Amino acid sequence: MIFDGFSHQVPDIDPRETEEWLDSFDAVVDQRGKSRARFLLMKILERAQATQVGFPATVSTPYVNTIPADEEPWFPGDEDLERRIRAYIRWNAAVMVTRANARYSGIGGHLSTYASSASLYEVGFNHFFHGKANGVAGDQVYFQGHASPGIYARAFVEGRLDEADLDNFRFEIEGGLSSYPHPRLMPEFWEFPTVSMGLGPISSVYQARFNRYLLNRRILDTSSSRVWCYVGDGEFDEPETRAGLSLAAREELDNLVYVVNCNLQRLDGPVRGNGKVIQELEAEFRGNGWNVIKVIWGSRWDDLLARDVDGVLVNKMNETPDGEFQKYATETGAYIREHFFGPDPRLRAMVEHLSDAELQSLPRGGHDYRKLYAAYRAATEHTGSPTAILAKTVKGWTLGPEIEARNATHQIKKMSHDQLRALRDRLKLTEEIPEAALDAEEPPYYRPEPGSVAFEYMTARKRVLGGSLPHRVVRGKGIEGLPAPRPAAFTEFTLGSRGQEVSTTMAFARLLRNLLRDPELGKYVVPIIPDEGRTFGLDALFSEVKIYASGGQRYTSVDAGLLLQYSESKDGQILQEGITEAGAMASFTAAATSYATLSQPMLPFFLYYSMFGFQRVGDQIWQCADARGRGFLLGATAGRTTMSGEGLQHEDGQSLLLASTVPSIKAYDPAFAYEMAAIVEHGIQEMYGPDGEDVLYYITLYNENYVMPPLPEGAAGENARQGAIDGIYRFAEPVVVEPPAGGSESDVRRATILFSGTAWTAAMQARTILAEEWNVSAEAWSVTNYKALREDALEIERWNRLHPSAAPRVPLVSRSLASSSGPIVAVTDFMKSVPDQIARFVRQPFTPLGTDGFGRSDTREALRRHFEVDAAHVVVAVLSSLASMGQIKQEEVDRAIALYGIDTESRDPRVA
Ligand SMILES: Cc1ncc(C[n+]2csc(CCOP(=O)(O)OP(=O)(O)O)c2C)c(N)n1
Ligand SMILES: [Mg+2]
Asked: Ligand 1 mean position to 181 CA, how many Å?
């Protein structure tokens, strides 16, 4: 039942009237047929909508254009000139990919995607995309990544790129045009990395939402910026593509337009050969509350639809699966007449007046410029919800019968001379590209000269729209526009926790609160949390700076009146994203790139369950790094043994390792509040200070409470602060141990223990035990950043290799540990590979103790014993190392193992 029995559950106040309506309906079905009945129902529903009779929206409409021909607006441009400009761009895009692949076969590039979407982009470029002239933010356009040849070709035709640029497409080592949109590689051109399918769409939703956030918080007037997201129909199978749709509608993001290039194909073949992707997407969008505009048929179908008195044409359109439509795109007019129109005599009669050639060239809506203009116009005029334009196209359109709509079309990277000649003819470029030029070994590019009608037209359009896109600008370096934090926000952490037991997570929550209260910087801080604010002690902020809710709080909160009430507000500052790390990460990216994309620096802190960060949204973090994001990722409840309950899917021992794979991330694992504070203070300066580095900070935060030590006074304190930032410093001197009877100072056995994060307790206990029970003098170092130490060492190693006759340089980690004595044992709540990053760069024997293996739920004590990272294991590791160096007897290690009750036959936790 369509209405799930709803009509049976409400009383029928006038059964006779009901019966009359139903009887008339039956009569229509009997006498006029189902098509007519359907038509009348639709008319009634339309009328219900127009008269605001509340009724649930249907999720599908017939397989025809949403905007009827007679409602298309007047087209304000010069259609012929725009067609010519489009032809130039199409031509150059094809030539560029072909030339690159002639130069180096296999360099890649795509012809067919842009060929299918040229009109989708051009209508935007000529009439809708707003640039960044006069200091405004303009529109944010997410281009389909593998449509980039067309975007470069337009920049070339506009005169922003030259032939040499196009010839270096994909030769990035020489600084050539990047394969796809990569701000890392082309920081003055691309803004949004999109080519990992799905990430562009989700980013675009949260970008549109972030624009509203800035507007509602009165930080930046983004009211004239629109977000355009171009997305492939195949790309819709990525969960991220769909992930933001409901939020977009809930937030009423009418500043967001999706343009879905429905060429019915993906890489291997049809997207929905047996189904209809446009209908499926329509239902998805409408079900989510979007405004949907289908652009399925080109203008030459209008006349046929007008003749469709029996509804047979619409029926046929509704019934034909996409696989068939793809086939028709490759077939002759005769075939189409036979198979599409042929089976029904009424349909066959409808096209009798058309020749085979005319039948074959009945275009799809996505190649019909006026239809697209109408859709874009309607999308920009629509209010109250986001719009999806579903445009039906042919993959490889205009590239000729060997390429168009073929299953292999996506992968074709070259065109032969003959194919190029056919393309030229099809694009009507015979004048611009003479026969002789075609015969040359390399096909020529073409662009209109400045002063020519086409060039001047484009220039005029750009002037009206405020400049060219894509265009990335960083206005003013670094911190301009973002006030420096007051030092007072950080100072309390240098005092330690004064006897109170606290965690680094609690310390961070306090620091975040201090930053939010900073009279100048405060409002630019963007706290982002998925549904874990309480876990991390951030609930106090709910009432203080409030949760952003575009419509305000329209209910009385259950905890209203309490100090820590759940408060939502239109100008709330916290982005509480709910249970979506992907959504939260997309928000983070919008905030972290706002200094460039909106010329409004913001300072985002995204706090999440560390296990659900790199592991879950790692590709988005990579994307954010590509986009030159600047901000702080905070992996709370870090450590495989520190969060004692929860178990295998929660306990994180790898995020630091995963973080080490991202070049622009600084990955920190602080043990103490003062370390954490120093790192954050430094990070803000690094990102938004005069140098404006495009870096992200990842900081682990733990939930184990202990008394936070104060930063030492004087030089030692400065050393510790700087060491925390650089990655390593000596936290505790060697314990004074009496030499053995009759021996001298040099007979004292020594060792060095490195710790990070909560492993500091095991390290410090071991240091004491080693002195008291084993006569070993151990010193302890805090290593806050193995990644940084490794990168510094690798850089110096490289420098030394390339400068053989210069005096060799020494890496920081080698220098730091040069004077420490005895073997090194490094203990961490993360995998052993984390400390192993420096093993090669220290001269002492090196043993990492870490938490390799699946996590599990138990007490901290049991877990640390299981993973062999407790004090006893540190002691045994030190003794064992000393034994292999010949400094103690093997029996002493045996004795220690027995004394601490270590089960030597237990299974390695890595495989247990
Ligand atoms: C996450 C991810 N998986 C796979 C790919 C490889 N890939 C690039 S384009 C493409 C097909 C895209 O099809 P569609 O979205 O329909 O775009 P079209 O080219 O048809 O417009 C695939 C599979 C990718 N870029 N990202
Ligand atoms: Mg496709």
From this structure: 14
CA dihedral 222, 223, 225, 230 (to 10 degrees): 110
Ligand located closest to 263 CA: 2
Place of tokens 């409470």: 705
The whole-angstrom separation of Cα 735 and Cα 717 is: 20
Distance separating alpha carbons of residues 400 and 422, to the nearest angstrom: 7
State residue 236's pLDDT score. 98
- Ligand 2 centroid to Cα of residue 144, in Å, is 10
Which ligand 1 atom lies nearest to the CA of residue 410? 19
Q: Is the distance from the beta carbon of residue 322 to the nearest atom of ligand 1 less than 6 Å?
A: no
Which ligand 1 atom is nearest residue 117's CA?
Answer: 21
The per-residue pLDDT for range 414-439, each reduced to its tens digit, is: 999 999 999 999 999 999 999 999 88
Backbone torsions φ then ψ of 270, nearest 5 degrees: -65, 150
97 lines ligand 1 (CB under 6 A): no
Per-position DSSP letters for 167-225, written without gaps between them? HTTT-GGGT---SS--TTT-TTT------STTHHHHHHHHHHHHHHHHHHTTS---TT-
Q: What is the largest CA-CA distance in the chain?
A: 118
List CB contacts of 470: < 8 A, sequence separation 6 or more. Answer: 141, 143, 151, 181, 189, 190, 191
Write b or e for each residue in 868-894: b if 16 or more Cβ atoms lie within 10 A of its Cβ, otherwise e.
bbbbbbbbbbbbbbbbeeebbeeebbe
Nearest to 91 by CA among 349, 373, 360, 432: 432
Where does the pLDDT of residue 1 fall: very low under 50, low under 70, confident under 90, or very high at 90 and above? very low
Q: Which ligand is nearest to the CA of 117?
A: 1
Ligand 1 pocket, 392 CB below 6 A? Answer: no
**Rounded CA separation 698/725 (Å):** 13
What's the CA gap between 56 and 747, in Å, rounded? 86
Looking up tokens 């960060």 gives 613
What Rg value do the Cα atoms of the chain yield, rounded? 33
The residue contributing the CA closest to ligand 1 atom 3 is: 197
235 lines ligand 1 (CB under 6 A): yes
Instruction: Provide the token pair at 783.
Output: 């290593």
Q: Is 600 in the pocket of ligand 1 (CB under 6 A)?
A: no
User: Which DSSP helix (H) or strand (E) runs through 659?
Assistant: helix 655-659
Tokens 């051009």: give the residue: 122
> Are 878 and 823 within 8 A, CB to CB?
yes
374-377, long-range: CB within 8 Å, 24+ apart, which pairs?
Answer: 374/67, 374/71, 374/72, 374/73, 375/66, 375/67, 375/293, 375/295, 376/123, 376/124, 376/127, 376/128, 376/257, 377/73
663/695 Cα distance (integer angstroms): 9
- Ligand 1 atom, smallest distance to 271 CA: 16
Nearest residue (CA) to ligand 1, atom 7: 267
Q: Is 134 helix (H, G, I), strand (E, B) or coil?
A: helix
Helix (H, G, I), strand (E, B) or coil at 230: strand
- Which ligand sits nearest to residue 113's alpha carbon? 1
pLDDT tens digits, 287-306: 999 999 999 999 999 999 99
CA distance 829 to 755: 9
Beta bridge partners of 569: 548
Across all residues in the chain, what is the average pLDDT? 95
